[in-house]
UniProtKB/TrEMBL annotation:
GO terms for biological process: carbohydrate metabolic process. The keyword Cytoplasm does not apply. The keyword Glycosyltransferase applies. SUPFAM superfamilies: (Trans)glycosidases. This is 4-alpha-glucanotransferase. Its EC number is 2.4.1.25. It comes from the Bacteria. Keywords: Carbohydrate metabolism, Glycosyltransferase, Transferase. The gene is malQ. Belongs to the disproportionating enzyme family. One of its GO terms (molecular function) is 4-alpha-glucanotransferase activity. InterPro entries: GH, Glyco_hydro_77. It catalyses: Transfers a segment of a (1->4)-alpha-D-glucan to a new position in an acceptor, which may be glucose or a (1->4)-alpha-D-glucan.
Amino acid sequence: MSDILDKRRAGILLHITSLPGAGDKGDLGREAYHFINFLHDAGITVWQTLPLTAPHADGSPYQCLSAHAGNPALINIEWLVSQGWLQLPDNNEEAQITLKANKSGLLNRAFSGFLAQADEQDKDSFEHFCLAQGFWLNDFSLFIALRNVFNQVCWNQWPELLKERDAKAIREVRRRLKPEIQSIKFTQYVFFRQWLELKAYALQQGVLLLGDIPIFVSYDSADVWTNRDVFKLDEAGEMLVVAGVPPDYFSETGQRWGNPHYDWTYLEKTGFAWWLERMRTQLELFDILRIDHFRGLEAAWEIPANEDTAINGVWAKAPGKALLNAIKTGLGSIPLIAEDLGVITHEVEQLRDEFNLPGMKILQFAFDSGPDNPYLPNNYTKNSVVYTGTHDNDTTLGWCEKLNEGQRHYIYDYLGHPSMPLHCALIQAALASIANLAIIPMQDILELGSEHRMNTPGTTEGNWNWRFQWQQLAPERTAKLAQLIQLFNRNG
């Protein structure tokens, strides 16, 4: 769809929350800029993150409150201080304690400061943002304000008139909650400003930002509350079927994700307007987009909502060709990557190839069968993206440590680097491959073990919390990475 992926490039996979820093999670402050400098120095031209959208309490960026809204936890508080909208204690120790305090409270204080201190240019900028993003922002801000009123319970448990979006009830609650709604809009304004400033800096340093679009959205989201016709729901707004995947490499009972399925008939009738709006927002934020679970655009695993596991699901067809044509017509040729992992059929490959989308190759999947394994580098095409592993895999060092001797010998025979640590040989194999884009998780760059993995599919605790520290990145490690980038001509 775009020639931006035709060049030979290298990238690193690291979510914003995994950046170092004083707070509980990484954010869009100085460490993000420092990371871009590191990428530039190493000759890496792509930074891939996980979705930036606002998660639920479990922290998963793949189960979010909106397909559009940014995660307020990623906002850098010191930026607000620099704008003059928030004041911290003069005492540095007290200031650090305040920075670690409740971020939503600080953002509310910053909004009060904005109203009192911001100049006309900033106030006009905020107003323009609210108008330009109103197609999702108006409903999202009301949705979050109501969730706060009702102690974070799902919208299907709200009072009937609000659950059903009765026009009179919605007008009244918008009036009553106007200050809270405006503060939520301000938070999104700050997030978008900070991200777009970071994106502009990345562009100056020759770094492209690669974003991830989960194919499905959460049931408990502004999207489902305000667009019930887009999803397969009954008259009461309850899910008839839920999304997931059948039994596979990750789970013997499959994965029951619990997301609502799309009503593709309705979406086709409306020209896929909901999807186009979603893509348009993400294209503001990113240079390249990866569609997570791309195979769901050809057929998706539908599980009856009353089933506890994914075993008794069925494949339900989806109009992926019509959707991708609508995206191309409405948004032009945009750089898309197809996450084509899992149960991939000829029809899925045909859909991917018809739109010339690069698919994904995972080296950790390459050595468990014969020479026809599509993840072996000798079977790649240029139009593909190779990873040592993804956020859902073990770290490559951790994966290597679990291999038996026979498996290790087989991989060494294939790679031809018997004197090199196996995890390093796999990184080098990814960079040396014919694939136009090679992406290495930051954990693999740092040669970290299993305790540093980002996510374990099928589990709900202990995920999404990993962070790195700069002292793990010795100068010689950066120099070695830069040497490999140069050696394999991946400067982009």
